[in-house]
């Protein structure tokens, strides 16, 4: 977000018409507040002091001040008019005391923490059989050390002399309200940040939670773990962790009712001559013996290797794994391949294709039965 970067006059807490003596005395007063030696070497104090010292160096040189004023005039013509608020700025600074505007704002003590919702991908086998998954829950919560104040020693944080503790100020021709860039919108300058959150007021928490996945867990299921959500800084009960399950689809297995179904492609040689084919199961690949002469469409069932049965009575029982054979016929791309296949069929005939032969005979019989009728109709 855009913030207001104070000009040199505001940094020094003086109106633009201040004379050299005013500049000097306010620079001295500010130095007493921000000099790093006076602030136990605070990095933030050093930063502020450097900004103020740079501003003073420029404005205390008459020539450079003239140039600076010209630049400022172009940037904000109203700025060089008297700014009555600037006069008050140093008075405000004198109250270098604990005047934290922000009171502990968050949850009243005893309030319950928020529920956290995370999405988690669950492997197909775990979702089907049930199991445990480790879910990472991350959240930002109010810092328990400073309870969101950003500091445990508020009396060391001076009120910002630029925004006078408001955290924002109206600037430019449009009098647009912008957060104060000097105190970062806090209203006070954080010279003594909280050791836990370093002034961020929030801490990041990351925890691993073991979540039980029930058998036959569907994609999109919400699993709630009581008390595994946000733990409030004020000590109320923790919220819940709600896990939205994304079931990773299996590349080969699909669920149908209580069964698992898999289409198993066989080459014609495997189908004709028999083979041992590796097939997927929820427990990992297993060898399936395919007997010689297995037709396309045949189904092999492995009992008890499907889904856990839904009825509570049969908790230990499972449906079947159904392996459906589908012939994977080759695409012949060269005439010589077609020749070779025809030659093989010649070699096998007669009697090799009993079902095809029986089918052809039936059709031939039907044709013969209807043929004389057709011939008579044609003659008439
Ligand atoms: Zn400020
Ligand atoms: Zn803190």
Task: Provide keyphrases for this structure.
single chain; 380 residues; alpha+beta; Helix Hairpins; HSP40/DNAj peptide-binding domain; 4 domains; 4-stranded mixed sheet; 3-stranded mixed sheet; 13 strands; 30% helix; elongated; binds zinc ion
Can you give a write-up of this model?
It is built from 9 helices and 13 strands. The strands form 5 sheets. The protein has a 4-stranded mixed sheet. Strands 1-7-6 form a 3-stranded mixed sheet. A two-stranded antiparallel sheet has the order 2-5. Strand 8 and strand 9 form a beta hairpin. The protein folds into 4 domains: 109 residues, Helix Hairpins; 87 residues, Sandwich (HSP40/DNAj peptide-binding domain), CATH 2.60.260; 74 residues, HSP40/DNAj peptide-binding domain (Sandwich); 45 residues. The longest helix is centred in the C-terminal third of the chain and has 26 residues. Helix 2 packs antiparallel against helix 3. One zinc ion binds next to loops. The site of one zinc ion has 6 residues, from loops.
């Amino acid at each position: 977000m855009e913030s207001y970067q104070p000009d040199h006059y505001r940094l020094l807490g003086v109106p633009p018409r201040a004379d050299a003596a005013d500049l000097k005395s306010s620079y001295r007063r500010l130095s007493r507040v921000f000099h790093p030696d006076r602030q136990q070497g605070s990095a933030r104090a050093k930063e502020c002091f450097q900004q103020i010292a740079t501003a003073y160096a420029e404005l205390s040189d008459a020539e450079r001040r003239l140039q600076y004023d010209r630049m400022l005039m172009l940037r904000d013509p109203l700025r060089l008019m008297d700014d009555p608020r600037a006069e008050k700025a140093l008075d405000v600074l004198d109250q270098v005391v604990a005047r934290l505007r922000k009171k502990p704002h968050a949850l009243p003590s005893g309030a319950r923490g928020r529920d956290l919702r995370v999405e988690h991908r669950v492997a197909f086998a775990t979702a089907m059989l049930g199991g445990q998954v480790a879910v990472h829950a991350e959240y930002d919560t109010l810092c328990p050390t400073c309870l969101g104040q950003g500091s445990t020693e508020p009396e060391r944080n001076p009120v910002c002399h630029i925004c006078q503790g408001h955290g924002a100020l109206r600037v430019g021709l449009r009098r647009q309200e912008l957060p104060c860039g000097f105190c970062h919108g806090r209203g006070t300058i954080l010279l003594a940040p909280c050791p836990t959150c370093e002034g961020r007021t929030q801490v990041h928490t990351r925890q691993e939670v073991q979540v039980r996945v029930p058998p036959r867990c569907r994609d999109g299921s919400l699993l709630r773990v009581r008390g595994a959500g946000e733990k409030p800084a004020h000590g109320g009960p923790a919220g819940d962790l709600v896990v939205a399950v994304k079931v990773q689809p299996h590349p080969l297995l699909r669920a149908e009712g209580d069964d698992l179904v898999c289409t198993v492609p066989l080459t014609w040689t495997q189908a004709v001559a028999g083979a041992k084919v590796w097939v997927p199961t929820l427990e990992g690949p297993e060898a399936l013996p395919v007997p010689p002469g297995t037709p396309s469409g045949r189904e092999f069932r492995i009992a008890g290797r499907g889904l856990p049965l839904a009825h509570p009575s049969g908790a230990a029982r499972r449906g079947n794994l159904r392996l459906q054979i589908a012939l994977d016929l080759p695409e012949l791309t060269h005439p010589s391949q077609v020749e070779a296949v025809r030659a093989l069929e010649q070699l096998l005939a007669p009697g090799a294709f009993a079902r095809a032969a029986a089918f052809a005979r039936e059709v031939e019989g039907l044709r013969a039965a209807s043929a004389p009728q057709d011939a008579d109709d044609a003659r008439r």
